Amino acid sequence: MSTSAKIKRLDQRPMKDAILSKNKFRFLGLTLDDFIKYFFQGNAMIAIVVLALITISLFSSGIWFIPQNYQNLVVYRQAGLEYVDYLRQEIDDHTALTRYLSNLRLQQMQLLLKEGKSPEEAQTALAPLDAFIAAYGDAATPLNDMLSEQTDIASAIKDKHNSQQEELHGRELLLKAGKKEEAAALQVEPIDFKASVQPLLDMRDAYIEANGIFAETLSNLIFHPPRMVSRSLQPKMDRFRELSRTYLIELPKYEDQILNWEQFKPIPKYKAVTSFLFGRQWLTASFWQDWYGIIPLLVGSLTVSFVALVIAIPFGVGAAIYINQIASPTEQNLIKPYIEFISAIPSVVLGFFGIAVLGQSMRWLSQQEWLAWVPGFPIQERLNIFTAGALLALMAVPTIFTLTEDAINNVPRAFKEASYALGATRLQTILKIMIPASLSGIISAVLLGLGRVVGETMVVLLCAGGRIEIPDFTQGLGAFFQPVHTMTGIIAQEMGEVVQGSIHFHALFMVGIILFLLSLVINYLAQQVVHKYKISIG
Predict the structure, then answer these.
(1) Which domain holds residue 82?
(2) What Å distances lie between residue 507 and 175, 297, 493, 499, CA to CA?
(3) Is the Cβ–Cβ distance between 390 and 303 less than 8 Å?
(4) Which of 254, 276, 298 is the last residue of a domain?
(5) Which of 27, 94, 319, 516 is the most exposed place for a label (fewest CB within 10 A)?
(6) Rounded distance, CA 151 to CA 261, Å?
(7) Does a structural domain hold residue 112?
(8) Are 79 and 224 within one domain?
(9) What span, in angstroms and rounded, lies between the C-alpha atoms of 462 and 348?
(10) Are residues 247 and 323 in the same domain?
């Protein structure tokens, strides 16, 4: 055998030995390669199974909300609560106008005191306005008395219905337990909604008469309103007169609703879903009527996320570009670990920081006179959209920063070198070469940061304010300094207190379904944007 053949045979021996030793490892007829393959394949299958179980559990629990909410709406109508709420809405609108007058009086008092008037002199000057406010508020006294009486009647009907449902549920439990004799002995008296609601309908004539007197009184009052002591407030009084005239024009609408109300008018099935998707009230554990509308929670989540992204995107993307393209090695070793360390801070610690430091500091800053021009200043609530959004931005910055830097690193080095070779400056290279080439990765980083923000619970639960209301966007940027509640926050806050199987319990699962679908939409949009961008680059 030649020398070259011997050398070749010696070179191949380690490879053959490795193959033989690998093939010697067998268990249940599987080689080592098979074990490695099935191990990772099993992990992937476990992830898919867990995701499927979560999805099935979420939808199977949430779907029961639809029939329960439909029954809730049926009882709301047949028990007369809907009928009473027509009168309640009329009185609530009048109360809002009275509150407008009270705020106007407070502003007038503050101006008089600033002008050097004593409190006694200011009270004397405001006497005509006080008499007008009292007369305007007292005009609704007969309607308020009628509303109180109707509320007692309707709430008694609903309480009787709830007691009946509890008795029926108890009888079902006895039947399931095999106690047929005890179940038969438990007599459940059916409620007659038609007869029970008749006392409410008998008040229609009295309502029409009282409403006519109410409208006449308001017309006389707004025809001769008092003049404001300070001329600067006169336009607001004129605005009040316009609002009152509009209110008087709408009074016949309330009368028509009450006169034309039909107790047993069928409710469309889709109302059970649309009242949830487009409802503007999330009201639970109410003596009157529970409402499950997701709009205030959805708006709260979106506004907080919007503030977070507005803050996080410039900081996260800007820091990644600086560290990757401009900073010296010393700066990279100093700044990069600090940014990435933020993700290790527990969210509850950030929440406490928002309550004790950020929220308090923002409220103090908003009370400074030289910042009075900022919309929404001074801040009334230290826990609001901005406070929660700023903290969520801090949590999103590491995600956006890390993924953006990875996207920039994936840009071929030849792109940068070609740009420099053509005489471009470093700034031109960054703006026109590096950022466009890595834009798909930057978009993905931003969307993943959005997912991090939308799914956060503890920070929004502690720092968003917890008010289940849609912000007043007529205040412009000032709306972002108002308290809100979010979808994740409401689940964390209420899930531990609800009765399993109740409508409230299933409503929280419906909120979880909306969050789930929102995440799917975000990921789908991310894929579409990245795909289209890659096509345009190609």
Answers:
(1) 65-276
(2) 28, 13, 13, 12
(3) no
(4) 276
(5) 27
(6) 17
(7) yes
(8) yes
(9) 8
(10) no
Asked if 390 contacts 358 with a C-beta cutoff of 8 angstroms, the reply is: yes
The string of DSSP letters for 27-47 reads BTTB-HHHHHHHHHHHHHHHH
What pLDDT shows up at residue 26? Answer: 56
Say what angle helices 204-223 and 234-259 make with each other, to 10 degrees.
160
Q: What is the predicted pLDDT for the residue at 10?
A: 47
User: How far, in Å, CA of 84 to CA of 101, rounded?
Assistant: 26
Output the furthest CA–CA distance in the chain (Å, rounded): 125
Are 371 and 269 found together in one domain?
A: no
Number of domains in the chain: 2
CA atoms within a 13 Å half-sphere pointing along the CA-CB vector of 366? 19
Q: Does residue 10 lie within any of the structural domains?
A: no
List the one residue out of 342, 136, 345, 95 whose CA is nearest residue 221.
Answer: 136
> For residue 224, how far is the Cα from the chain centroid?
44
Identify the segments of the chain with pLDDT beneath 50.
6-8, 10, 16, 18-22, 535-538
Element (H, E) at 165: helix 141-176
Q: State which amino acid sits at residue 391.
A: L
pLDDT digits (tens, 9 = 90+) for 457-500: 889 999 999 999 999 888 888 899 999 999 999 999 998 888 88
The number of beta carbons lying within 10 Å of the beta carbon of residue 506 is 21
Q: Could you read off the pLDDT of 133-188 as tens digits, one per residue?
A: 999 999 999 999 999 999 999 999 998 888 888 877 777 777 777 777 776 766 76
Contact 465, 383 (CB under 8 A): yes
Cα 475 to chain centroid distance, Å, stands at 19
Q: Tell me, yes or no, whether 452 and 518 share the same domain.
A: yes
Same domain? For 391 and 483 the reply is: yes
For 254-407, list the strands marked E by DSSP. 282-283, 291-292
Final residue in a domain of this structure, among 276, 298, 332: 276
